[in-house]
Amino acid sequence: EIDHATRVRWALEAARCAGEVANFCDHAEHNEVTERERVLTAARTMRRLACEIATFHGEDLRERYAARLRAAEERNPLCSPEAPDGGVLALEAKTWRDLQLVQAAHDRYYHPDVLGLSKLDQLLHYALHVSKLAAALAMLADDGIDIDDFRARRLPDLLVFGIKLSTVLGETLPARRVVE
Fold this sequence. Notes:
Blueprint: H1 4-29, H2 36-56, H3 61-75, H4 86-92, H5 96-110, H6 112-115, H7 119-141, H8 147-168
Helix pairs in contact: 1-2, 1-7, 2-8, 3-4, 3-8, 5-8, 7-8
């Protein structure tokens, strides 16, 4: 079992990430100076948290990520035998760069509504998701969440949005192995 202090630390880190993304969006909307690196740091933190939490729970993060992509694809009206299978592609991915390309391919096909938004509007959309993740981690800290649901949806979403935030800001993820 994971100690309470560790779960609280995860929640605080996720809250900081949510705050950084929201702060960037707020400053950009007001035509104020923005600090892109703070959002990229939040993205790295989210990817690290996903890996750390998966390790603590004995989860294969790529399998959870693949299942999450597959579930989203199966719910989408564009799903067909000819459509890209993000689940298969995610399981084949070996590096962070591979996962970034898998996520981009998934988003191009299944989420053209979000990709068609301006970069700022994409970030605003992602800020909502990151806030939901911060809330889920706060509930995890207080034992107020279904752990199976957390593992199936929120854990891989930490990875998803840790990748998406980097991508929307133009960062190429490294060709370094995801699991080392």
